Every structure is written in structure tokens, then in C-alpha cells.
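Why run this: before we spend reagent on co-expression, it is cheaper to look at a predicted model of the complex and decide which construct boundaries make sense. The entries below are exactly what would go into the expression plan.
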Amino acid sequence: MEFNLEEGKHLYDECSTLILPALSIGNVGQLAVDLLIASTNAERIGCLDDPNVLPCVGNDAYIPTPQGDLALPLEAYESPSSALTLIQQRSPVVKGRMIEYAKNLADFAAACGKKHVIILSSLDFGRWQTIDMSSGQQIYYLSNTTVDGADDQCEKLGWKRMKEYDPNQKLWKYLNTLAEGSVSQDDISLLEDDLGEEDYYPSLPFAAMFSCFKAKGLKVTCLLCYCSEGDNIPDAFHLAEAACNLVGLRPDTFKGNEGGGWVIPFSWQSVYGPPPDMSLF
Amino acid sequence: MEDVLTELPPPSRFFLEDLNNFTPPTPPLPSPFLLLSNPNSKTPLRPSLLIIALSTPSLYLLHHLSSKTLTGTLVLPEISSSGNSVEPSLKDKSCNLYAITHANESIILANFQYSVPSERTHAIAKTLIGQQIIPERVLIFDCIQSRNFRGRLSTDDTFALKLETAVERKGVPLLKSLNYFPSGSVIEGLGAALLGRCQMKNIKGSLCVSWPELGGSVTSTLKSVLLKDVLPGLELKIDANGEDEGLRFGHKHHYIDSDLYT
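The model came back. C-alpha cells follow.
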């Protein structure tokens, strides 16, 4: 993975927390990072090039009158006032290369001296085993603070540990060995059985990233919410707010006009395509 | 009437295998490589401009440049050259490189005449830019992909838009007459990989995307861009029926666009 620092920019030492999305249903993690970048007024400091990510280009996604600043598949932003680094991912990973990509990300984060990595991801509502109607839009988490994935700070924030995480389960163990480099992905034949229901969570991109960052000795927290595909913007707000709570940011101090101070990225105006052709009516 | 409770959901934005860490990767392919007319040269080519044509109208126009010399080809080992002709032809599955001399500038033209999967584009971009060819400036012609465009597209409309690298935007832009591609839409594929490569290498790069994908009107639009902004005064040898041929060229007959019929 190559990192191209923009001219005149540098990495801020105080930005020791890295927030990034994992590809997931509804693109919620990516939408949440968009919202955080726009609302913290983070500045782009560079772009990353990884052969495991499919290419895409576009115009600036954030400012109201885009001036042609090139948007790329992997971009790094920093907000020194919030002590945050954010990486946005705009395109999918090459099929079968998720673990390689996660390893490269982990190498980059470690090389930049990041201390805490927060991964934002959604989970498929269709897989939700225990419906807890009393908790509304519950945030779930997974942390490497303890062996079973629990973290006191997350518990105090009212979040629930992802109980499907079992470090001794076959695929979670296999992910760990892949992340540590003990086996190669060619050894997937070691998994003799077909994948079952309990294999859903470790098969997701956030799990690969969690395992790879953990293997690098970084503190890593995954923030997760269940959703279905559709208009996932409300889910993005929910996840972004959770990230703010974790790092001690208050959205009502952001400079936006939306409820709570959020700044809506300019590119969201067309996120679901153009408005209907009114000449039809 | 379909049962709304149990009917199949609409297609997901992701395929299941896109979100599965354990999807087996496709077997690796041999790297693309350049075959140049001077294979013994140890120094890279350093043209002032590298033009890469990907879209049908740009391929048609640049194929008809009269003052170009075949100087090499990009080889993708997985692409068969079965059916290619000895003399370069628009029907070939090839990416030939040509040298053009124009107004004392050295220009290399790459006519990319086949489609490649997105997974392959990173390697192709790396081969074309920054290794054996180190251009001062790159211009890529591609087309707008309707599936990735968030505005309205009608085949009655004809237009071209641009994206540029940061270093291109700092100076006097090559494509002065074009507006920027709108925010919220994206370009993917080889054009994106090439422009991304320019950005990473701090090379002046411009991507010109046009709509519709083929036809006489968009061919005329690109001809105007070429003659006004890029290669003023250049001779394009297009005969009286050239505009009509531009309409017909690119209409692919997929059922015969196969190695079975070469």
C-alpha cells in the first residue's frame, strides 16, 4: 500500500485515533465516515493506493461547489482539533483479497503511529438472532481490550458486546492465524466443513480488519449496528454519533445546519440518483 | 400476486462474495508488459504527452490520425490476438502504441481496443505509466458509465466532462473548454486506474469522459476537443462518410465478438 502525502500537508502526531469503514450491508460505515469527515471539517492529507482495491475517481464529495479536487478510492483525512485521522474507502475490494487489504491497512496504521483504531460497520438485520425491542437502535461493539471482546468504556456508553464473537471458534481462530501470517489463505482447505450460521460474523470484512489491527498490537474497537438495505442515511447518523461518543466529541459543536450540528456531505444530494422528472406530471 | 412478505429482496448493492473474507481469490495472472520497437533501450520513454484512448469515439478519431508511427504494443497475456490483422485495425483486440510528432512535442498514443475487468486495471495502469513510459502529462479518453452517473442521461444529450489530478489543476489545464464531472458520480475501470496512477505519481493527468458512448455527435464533440485544446492544427484523415462510420463503429455484436469467430 502506497501513501501519497499531499503537497504542504503532514501527519499530525496528535491524531492518534483512526476511524475507518468496513464494507458492509447498506454501505453504512462508509456513509458514517463521510458524515464525520464533513462535520469535523477534516482536511484531506493524502491518498492511499492499494492493488487490492478497485479503482474509481470522482469530483470532491464534500464542499458545496466542487472545484474539481480529485476523489480517489482510498483517502486519508485529519482533524487535529478532534485528534482524529479518518480513512474513507469508496470502492470495493478485489474479490478474495479482503485479508490482504486488511493487513496492508494495519501495516499503514502501525507505521503512522496510530494508537486506537475504530472500525465502523453494519450487520445484516436478517441475521439478528435476538430481537430486543426495548433498546431501539442498539449499538454493538467488539474490542480487543479483553479476550472475550468486552470493553468497560463501551459498556458504560450502553452498548452491547457482540456475543457472537468467540475467539476459540474455528473461523475467528483462522482469521487470527491469517492476520499473524502463520498460514496463507491458500490453506483455506484447512476449513474442511461447509460454513455455518456461526461463521457469518467472522466472514465479514470488519472481522478481517479487527484481526489484522489486533495482530499489529493496536487497540481496536468495532462499532456495529443492524440494518437492512434501503435508505441507510439514518443508520449512518447513528453509527457516526456512536463514534463521536467513543472519542468524546459532541456533534452539537459541529458547524452544520442539520439537527445536532451535523454537516451533510455535498455528494449526498444525489446519493440515490437524480430527483424524478417532474415533466411527467 | 407476489407475497410481499416472502418474495425475494431486490439485488443487493454488494454480492455476498464481496463481503466474504474467505472467498477464494482468482488465480494470479502474468503481469502485462510493453513490447517496444526499441527493446534494447534502457532509458524510459519520456513523452511530453501520453494520450490513452479507451472510448469508442476517441479510438475511432485517433485511429485516423495521419501522422502516427507504430512504436510498440501493450501485451496482456490473457488476451488472445487471434483474429488480429497485420496492419493495425479498429477491429483488433490490441493496445498499440504510436509516436506522434506535433508542434515539436513528442506524443505517445495508446489505443486501448479491448475491455478488461476492473481487477486487472491496477496492473495495466502501472505498466503504461511510470515504468518504461514516464510522461510529463497524460490525457485519457473514456466514456461516462450510466450505472455510476447520478444525474440524468439521455441519448439525445451529447457532452464531455473532465477530471484532473492535483498537479494538473495547479497549472494551465490542458482541457480548457470542459466543465468538471459532477460530485456524487464516479468513474470506475481502466480510466479511473490510469488517472489514479497519475495522481499517485504526481503527474499532470486529465480524464475526459463523454456521453453517449458512441455515435456521430459525440465523435464530433471529441474531435472539437482534440483540435481545440489538445492537438490544434492536427490532421485527422476522416473521409466524407467518416461521421457515419463513427456512428456505426462500436456497435458490438456480442454474439460474434468471441474468439470462436476469428
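The longest strand of chain A covers residues 116-124. Chain A has one domain: 2-6+14-126+134-269. Bring this page to Monday's planning discussion.
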